[in-house]
Design goal:
The protein is of the alpha/beta class. It has 8 helices and 11 strands. It folds into 2 domains: 3-123, Rossmann fold, CATH 3.40.50; 128-229, Winged helix-like DNA-binding domain superfamily/Winged helix DNA-binding domain (Arc Repressor Mutant, subunit A). Helices cover 40% and strands 19% of the residues. A hairpin with a 2-residue loop joins strand 8 and strand 9. Helix 2 (34-44) packs parallel to helix 3. The radius of gyration is 20 Å and the shape is elongated. The protein binds calcium ion. Calcium ion (CA) is lined by residues 9-10, 52, 54-55.
Amino acid sequence: MAHVLLVEDDPGIRTAVVRALHARGHAVQSAGSGLDGLQAMLVGTPGVVVLDLGLPDVDGERLLGMIRAVSQVPVIVATARDDEGLIVRLLDAGADDYVVKPYDPAHLEARIRAVLRRGAAQPDVAIDPPLQVGGLVVDRARRTAAVDGRPIELTRLEFDLLAYLASNPGRVVSRAEVLREVWQRTDAARTVDVHLSWLRRKLGDAPSHPRFIHVHRGVGVLLEDRVEDAPVPHQGPLG
Ligand code: CA
């Protein structure tokens, strides 16, 4: 059971979703506008927020930013457009997952369980020591990562992706496996590629001679430190 906050301005959808989630044993609070939703979130400390992006008072993407400024609560966005560019942007802005409207409440409930499972699986310091792959250190307990001692800033999904790869070093991991284990869904393949390319950039991987993330076309991706193969940074003009 979860404490769900539903932010949705359409009264018909709101009633139907509240009823469906109630019937599945969740405690549901709802708000009909962005500002009401933000207030309910601050007062009620929900376990998960379902956020409609098309709200009358505040742009949904802006509201997501406002939520992220004050809280790490899992947010599932409900979008009317099945547009991967938009979805990738929302995930990058801190959404944990998404549903495309009109959605089946049973599907929404599966996404709620998935984000809560991900949250519950947070490792703790004692049983999950930092992972080390060559010069890369991924600390799952503190959710920090560093390359050669230099910390790197990652979004939540980038971190989860990197941590998953770092816990399977030297093994080619398929995109389907990444989707299942990190995204916990099967229908967002392109967002994996996009996150991999962001991750590469943040790790400082050169596209032609990557140091850490090695893509095996049509098979998957492998994390390994091949520092000797990578070009030396800050090389002089004469090489
Ligand atoms: Ca709406």
